[in-house]
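Quick one, probably user error.
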């Protein structure tokens, strides 16, 4: 958010920089837009697009936002309904969606009119002599209104227009009235479609709510976390791994690593989750943990070394153990692991040599 604010303050006055600013927002949304507390980022993006009245782009942003379980999900849906209500559907919908919804609305209106006409034709006619006649007020002689009263359904022509001009005005008025009715129904359909998505998002929010409420310290601090906090993080991560998407799980791990940066078991858990997906991602996790946050933690480095040995990178495995030996001299586990790597390398080399002798 701070970088976006800086970028807008520096380049926001340049019309040519709008696409660049949009790309910065998109990078931010990709990196953290699915995070549970990313509401400020989404609101900032929508506000920036609103300043340029880019209504279609705002709708596209809302279509993405309404699928993301965030803390203020209900607030976003209410804002979306305001966005729909205050603007013409032609301005905030894509052409394809507008034409599709309008065709559905026209079809429904036509069906309603036909049903109404059929019910009128099938109804009983009023009995003769029961029609009401307009009452004539008692007016003293000489005070009658010289202008005749209009017949029922007749429009008073005060501008001296001929009958064709009056009918044209009626047609135009009826057209715009029908158009507004159609647009209102289109708006209702737009909200109805998004409301289905909103309900699904509400269910996802309810599943995460207790875990999120249990996070009392989302920031880094040198003081130890409470056991209940660590337990909550582990349970939340296990639940997200089992039920969530890969992207959401990574974002949750990254949030966890801020608060739990000094806990090696959390880093190891992150690395094990990442291993089936990306070996380079695992190396990056171990490097961040071992070189920055936990340079003297034996278990973390032994796990890191075992990972590199498992994937045949013996040189890197020995380098990790050497780094740990320099940081914490005299550890028996480091000496045993180092010896094990040398034995593995020798056995592999000898096996390859015997194979070469037998076959060549």
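Nope, works fine. Designed sequence:
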């Amino acid at each position: 958010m701070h970088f976006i604010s800086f970028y807008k303050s520096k380049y926001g006055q340049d019309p040519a920089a709008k696409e660049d600013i949009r790309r910065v927002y998109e990078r931010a949304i990709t990196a953290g837009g699915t995070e549970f507390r990313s509401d400020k980022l989404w609101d900032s993006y929508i506000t920036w697009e609103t300043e340029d009245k880019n209504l279609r782009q705002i709708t596209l942003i809302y279509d993405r936002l309404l699928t993301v379980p965030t803390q203020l999900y209900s607030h976003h849906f209410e804002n979306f309904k305001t966005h729909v209500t205050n603007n013409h559907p032609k301005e905030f919908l894509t052409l394809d969606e507008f034409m599709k919804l309008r065709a559905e609305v026209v079809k429904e209106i036509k069906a309603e009119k036909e049903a109404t006409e059929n019910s009128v034709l099938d109804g009983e006619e009023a009995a003769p002599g029961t029609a009401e006649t307009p009452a004539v007020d008692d007016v003293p002689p000489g005070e009658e209104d010289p202008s005749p009263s209009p017949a029922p359904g007749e429009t008073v022509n005060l501008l001296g227009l001929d009958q064709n001009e009056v009918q044209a005005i009626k047609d135009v008025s009826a057209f715009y009235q029908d158009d507004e009715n159609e647009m209102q129904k289109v708006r209702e359909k737009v909200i109805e479609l998004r409301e289905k998505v909103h309900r699904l998002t509400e269910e996802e929010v309810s599943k995460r709510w207790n875990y999120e409420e249990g996070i009392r310290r989302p920031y880094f601090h040198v003081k130890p976390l409470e056991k209940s906090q660590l337990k909550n993080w582990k349970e939340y991560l296990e639940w997200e791994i089992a039920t969530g998407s890969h992207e959401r799980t990574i974002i949750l791990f990254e949030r966890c690593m801020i608060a739990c940066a000094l806990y090696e078991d959390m880093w190891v858990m992150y690395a094990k989750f990442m291993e089936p997906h990306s070996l380079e991602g695992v190396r990056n996790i171990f490097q961040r943990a071992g070189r920055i946050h936990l340079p003297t933690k034996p278990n973390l480095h032994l796990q890191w070394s075992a990972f590199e040995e498992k994937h045949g990178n013996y040189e890197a495995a020995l380098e990790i153990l050497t780094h740990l030996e320099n940081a914490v001299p005299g550890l028996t586990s480091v000496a045993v692991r180092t010896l094990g790597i040398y034995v593995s390398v020798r056995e592999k080399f000898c096996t390859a040599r015997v194979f070469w002798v037998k076959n060549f």
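DSSP finds 15 helices and no strands in the chain.
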